[in-house]
Amino acid sequence: MNTDGRSLTWPVFRDCGLGRNDDSSQAIWRGTVSRVKHVATLRQSRHHTRGPVSTMIRKSLFPLAFIAASALPATAAAPPFETAAPVAYMVDLSSGAVLYSKDPDRRIPPASMAKMMTTHLAFHMIKRGEAKLAQMCQVRPETWRQWHGPQAGSTMFLSPGEQVSVENLLHGIVTLSGNDATVVLAECLAGTEPAYAALMNAEAKRLGMTNSNFGNTNGWPDN
C-alpha cells in the first residue's frame, strides 16, 4: 500500500464513481485519503502486529464505501428524443432491442430504400446459382427512354443497347442509386420489372416483412 492511501481506497471509490470534480466527491476523497493515511501510519509503526491494523483498515473501509455511495447523485435518465420525421425506427442489431420507435407500422413509400431489397434479391440469386456477376445485360431502348434525363431522377447514365454486367449494375445501384440500373437488372434476371418485383415480395415474405410491398425495383412512385 502506498503512503497516500490511494492503492487501498481507489478500487472502492472508482467503483462508486468517485474521483469526479464535483465538490462533494472531492471532499469525501480528501477525507478518505486523510483517514487512510492515518491507518497507514499506524500500520507502518506496528508492522509486527499486523492483525489489529488489518482489522482496523477493513473496518474503516466499509463505512467509507457506504458514505461514498450515499453521496453520489442518482444516475441521470436518458434525455428525451424527438424527431420531425413522421416515421422512425432504431434497433440495436447486437441485442435486437428497439431503441426508438415512432409510428413504426405506418405504410409509406420506400423511395430508394426499395433498392436495398433489389440488390439483396440479386445477391441471393447469385448465391443460389441463378445469376452470375459476370452475366451481361442489355439496355432495352424502351427502358432507356423511360429512365434517362432529369425526369428519371438519379441514374448511372446507361445508353440504349449497351451491354452491362450484373456486377456493374449492382455498383450503379449501390453507389449511384441508379434508377435505370435497377430496371435493367430486373429485366435481365427476371424478364420484366414486375416479375422481379414479385420475387422481391416473395423474398420479403420469407424474411418476415409482413407489412411491406414492392411495386417496382427502385421505389419510384407507382401511382
Distance between the termini: 77 Å
What's the main sheet like?
A: 2 strands, antiparallel
Strand content: 5-15%
List the uncertain runs: 1-22, 53-57
SS summary, helix count: 8
The backbone outline, from C-alpha atoms, is: globular
Task: Work out the radius of gyration.
Answer: 33 Å
Provide the spatial order of strands within the biggest beta sheet. 1-2
**Alpha-beta content class:** mainly alpha
Note the run of SSEs as H and E. HHHEEHEHEHHH
How many beta-strand elements?
A: 4
* pLDDT averaged over residues: 79
- Percent helix: 40-55%
Secondary-structure blueprint:
Layout: H1 6-16, H2 23-45, H3 50-71, E1 88-91, E2 98-102, H4 114-127, E3 136-138, H5 141-146, E4 163-165, H6 166-176, H7 179-190, H8 193-206
Antiparallel strand pairs: 1-2, 3-4
Task: Provide key terms for this protein.
223 residues, mainly alpha, two-stranded antiparallel ribbon, two-stranded antiparallel sheet, 8 helices
Question: How would you describe this structure to a colleague?
Answer:
- With 223 residues, this protein is mainly alpha-helical.
- 51% of the residues lie in helices and 7% in strands.
- It has 8 helices and 4 strands; from the N terminus they run αααββαβαβααα.
- The chain has a two-stranded antiparallel sheet with strand order 1-2. A two-stranded antiparallel sheet has the order 3-4.
- α6 packs antiparallel against α7.
- It is globular, with a radius of gyration of 33 Å.
